[in-house]
Amino acid sequence: GLAALGDHDFFVVDSVQAMKAEEGGGWPGTPGQVRAAAQMCISAAKERSIPAVLVGHITKEGRIAGPMLLEHMVDGVLTFSGEDYSPYRMLRANKNRFGSTEELGVFEMGEKGLFPVDDVSSLYWNKAELSVPGVAMTMVLEGSLPLAAEIQSLAAGTAFPYPRRTARGIDLNKIQLFAAVLEKRCGIGCGLFDIYVNVAGGLQLKEPASDLALCAALASSVRDIPLPEKCLFLGEVGLAGEIRPVTRLPRRLQEASRLGFTRAVISSRENQMKGAPMETLRAATLKEALKEVMR
User: Is the pTM value of this prediction over 0.90?
Assistant: First the structure.
């Protein structure tokens, strides 16, 4: 048990749900036992002034199994996750009592174990030089880390009265919503097409900063016109067709410039930047932006 720690400088418990505390009562893994076992480990770490790591199981929803009190008892909560089809694993901080939770660690699982990924920003981008209709690029933030995201859209004529909409890596409702915005505000009808949208590399897009890139990909696919090469789309799009500013734009542009992008389409409401790392095209509305890039 913990009495055998001796003069060790660090200890790991795997897992806290499998430990049994005498004063906890019940079987290991029950709420009372998990709470008592965690408190026992925390007390041992504080008495010796050494760090301790408690490995715990998570539920299907991604939450720590057991009582919610466990998250409040510790100084930090890290989640280590990944998809079955991907060799990459993400290390995120959900709680950090003494620092930021915006950092992200990305590791690749190989034959000899886990290794850190050096260039995370281009992880989900294949750096294709040839521009293809229906493909738009954006920069999304995972914590404080900008990632290049490639949104692919394919519009195919439909023979059915209700066109099909399929999405992977992005909310299907967004496709329905922006297809309506494109038709009403920009005159680009999507009703005669089955639309398929994919985010390359298995990346999941949730933040609104990718709205403009999604709209550009849809419009480019329906019109069968490629978008400019090395061009980035950054903006939130509203139902009125307006383009809204995004958070941390300078950080996104700086990283995009490092990756080789030379132009960015952004909202006209963004603050003026001195010494922007690339050419910026400012547009107030989606119609105005598409007119500039789909000539």
Answer: no
